[in-house]
Amino acid sequence: MSPLRRIIRNATVSKAVPVAKAFKPYPLGRDPSSLPKLKWVSISETDNRSISLRYRVTAMIEMSLLDKAANLSRLAVMDDFRVDRDTHTATNVTSTTLLSSTATFCSTDVYMLLTKALVDAERFDEACDLVSSMSSCSFMVYDILIRGFLDVGNFVKASQIFEELKGLDSKLPGREYHTAIAIFNVSFMNYFFNQGKDEEAMEILATLEEAQVLKPIVGNRVLDVLVWHGKDTEAWELFEEMIEICDSETIDIMSDYFSEKTVPFERLRKTCYRNMIVSLCEHEKVSDAEKLFAEMFTDVDVEDLFVGPDVLTFRAMINGYVKVGRFDDAIMTLNKMRVLYIRKLAIHHAP
Asked: Does the keyword Repeat apply (predicted)?
């Protein structure tokens, strides 16, 4: 049995209050007169810039100005904002509570953003209230809550949430269950690394199902933890296993290693070529970048000019050539990009 399972099954945790009781359910059916009075909010509190209400609320939340976000979000019910298709969130946030009040506007992304803001502000009671109000369970939201408790050293509370979510009466959708459990385990693995308990962390890594680790959403999280804690050998071994399914996040996490390691390019997905080319050029491995750049043209028919490198890829190659002093190649690549995109424009605007 892994250390994680031993710890969360010990007497301290098993006697803890169940999460269902720890969370305060959303108070449906209360007498309206018992609800706290909210300050009147006027549309005059916003300026005349053509910025969506969602963006305004999001900006306030990211700056941890939750009360200001609360006031702005209440404008979502007004006719002036109902026609704005980008207005997806309307939440009732006060200085003491944060509960979803208009389900029509709420989404998983909004719950993630609000939960993170509350966790960062260490307003955990309100974060629990918010998470328990979700109409459908999102493991990404719960993971933010679990990581928040772990970050402040409340291992017992994090374990309570984890145990409830993996139990027989789990709220997790069946299709997401195994992925969610893997994500939660990675959060505990990171916690043990932070505590200097590398052996326990590596045991959790060993228990992760290969089928889950080879999904970018899980594999990238594992890679990030391994790289952050200096487990270079394990990180590179995992990257080589993931290279056929890697995405841009995978490349970003591992980019610092490309100047030191031999990358198995033949197994690399073409969707990762641009990110790999950018990373190789930054590390002055222009010859390797050239090979990938050339392969991006191999499957392009003469008339199919909308396939192939985009502007960012061309720019990376040009910068790479300049960095190593190959100015003629940089000019040739620039001219090639100009010709390609002039043709694209001509085709796009042709009658």
From this structure: yes
Residue with tokens 């090639």: 336
Tokens of 206: 């060993």
Closest CA to 287 of 251, 263, 256: 263
Q: What angle do CA 50, 53, 55 make, to 5 degrees?
A: 85
Comparing CA positions, the residue from 101, 92, 126 lying closest to residue 23 is: 126
pTM over 0.70: no
Lookup result for tokens 């990762």:
272
Q: What is the number of residues in the chain?
A: 351
Q: Which residue, 71, 76, 112, 111, is CA-closest to 93? A: 71
SS3 string, 298-311, reads: CCCCCCCCCCCCCH
Greater confidence, 13 or 334? 334
Q: How far is Cα 308 from Cα 89, in angstroms, rounded to an integer? A: 38
State whether residue 202 is helix, strand or coil: helix
- Of 98, 104, 79, the closest CA to residue 90 belongs to 104
Instruction: Compute the C-alpha angle 76/81/84, nearest 5°.
Output: 115
Residue 111, both tokens = 């719950």
Domain ranges of the chain: 271-351
Provide the angle, in degrees to the nearest 10, between the axes of the packed helices 108-120 and 124-132. 160
Which two tokens mark 58? 């999001």
Task: Tell me which of 3.40.190.10, 1.25.40.10, 3.40.50.300, 1.10.10.10 is the CATH number of domain 271-351.
Answer: 1.25.40.10
pLDDT for 72-105, tens place per residue?
Answer: 776 665 655 554 444 444 343 433 344 444 433 4
Please list the residues that pair with 99 across neighbouring strands: 92
Residue 298 Cα distances to 5, 41, 135, 286, 312, angstroms: 51, 59, 48, 19, 19
Phi, psi torsion values for 52, nearest 5 degrees? -65, 155
Query: For the segment 97-125, what is each residue's pLDDT rounded down to a tens digit?
Result: 444 444 334 577 878 888 888 899 889 99
